[in-house]
Design goal:
333 residues; mainly alpha; ABC transporter involved in vitamin B12 uptake, BtuC
Length: 333
């Protein structure tokens, strides 16, 4: 058990303990807040794979978050209406089974990410940021102009999709599903980043010319990471749609892309549980300060500024630094 592994387990355990404690205390709303933190943390885990380990500063991940949400909403809408989603070239019916919807959401986001990544990875730096943002905005305006599924008003579905053997309308049950998927995503990210592919991805981030000289082709490695990142984020979007039983074009907006990036930076870029810690702090500040003032995000901005200037490792980095100092002090004694 390494120090980082212990910290990651503690962050995840705090989230689970909060939800379980709230459930035992009859506080369903707090369980829902923990569920929201888990879902948004999952979206951050997806972006962190591209940003933290690959150095790909994508400002368009809301596109994949929204695609996951809209695939879920559209399948649920057609399941209730009985109308097919597609008739040509084959008949595609709606569904309210999560196990069937999740792969479709991830596949749709992966295909879109393959197209966006193939074009945007021709650029670097600020140009890459702007290209990913442009694609996300294109999809955002497409959703607004899609009256079949609510257009600007969004799309509601009144019954949460189902999971075998679980009543998903019970808050703690749905939290358990989201927490389990978050844990799987964290394990997957840890395995990927420690694999040969992950080491190659980090090599391209640190020095592309040197990695090319030793035979690592940067573009295919980065494109693969970008697609995997998008699929994880789309899974989070699907869960978020089920949580609210509502999807809207706001899921595609640049504000959502910015929030997901805030989770990663606040918690710690390149830290496994950094996005989860960042999302949890974001939700906590919103819950505590939102009723007091509508300008609560000003405090979040100051916190983010302080972290960028004085603690680039984010909240997880601060915890690590604190533990190192404690250990150093004990060693001196």
């Amino acid at each position: 058990m390494t120090r980082d592994m212990i910290i990651n387990l503690c962050v995840f355990a705090i989230l689970v303990a909060t939800a379980v404690g709230a459930h035992l205390g009859g506080q369903g709303f707090t369980v829902t807040l923990a569920t929201k933190a888990a879902i948004l943390g999952l979206a951050g885990v997806g972006l962190n794979l591209a940003l933290g380990y690959g150095g790909l500063v994508s400002f368009g991940h809301a596109a994949f978050f929204g695609i996951g949400g809209y695939v879920t909403g559209i399948f649920a809408f057609h399941a209730s209406s009985g109308e097919p989603i597609l008739t040509l070239p084959f008949a595609l019916m709606g569904s309210n089974e999560m196990l069937g919807i999740w792969p479709m959401a991830m596949l749709a986001a992966g295909l879109v990410a393959l197209l966006i990544g193939a074009l945007s990875l021709r650029t670097t730096g600020v140009y890459f940021i702007m290209v990913t943002l442009a694609f996300a905005q294109m999809i955002f305006y497409f959703a607004i102009s899609w009256p079949r599924y609510g257009g600007e008003d969004g799309l509601s579905f009144y019954v949460r999709n189902t999971f075998p053997g679980v009543n998903t309308l019970v808050p703690i049950n749905y939290f358990a599903i989201c927490a389990a998927l978050l844990a799987l995503a964290l394990i997957f990210t840890a395995l990927v980043t420690q694999s040969r592919f992950g080491l190659a991805l980090q090599a391209t981030r640190q020095n592309e010319q040197r990695s090319t000289a030793v035979g690592i082709r940067a573009t295919p490695v980065r494109l693969t990471a970008f697609v995997l990142s998008a699929m994880i984020t789309a899974l989070a979007g699907s869960l978020y749609a089920d949580l609210n039983r509502f999807v809207s074009p706001a899921m595609f907006s640049w504000h959502m892309s910015g929030e997901i990036m805030v989770f990663v930076i606040l918690g710690g870029v390149g830290r496994l549980c950094g996005p989860l810690a960042g999302a949890a702090v974001f939700i906590l500040l919103e819950h505590l300060l939102g009723p007091i003032t509508e300008h609560w995000q000003a405090l979040l901005g100051l916190m983010l500024l302080a972290i960028v200037l004085f603690a680039p490792g984010g909240l997880i980095g601060l915890i690590t630094l604190g533990l190192d100092r404690i250990r150093g002090g004990k060693a001196d004694v």
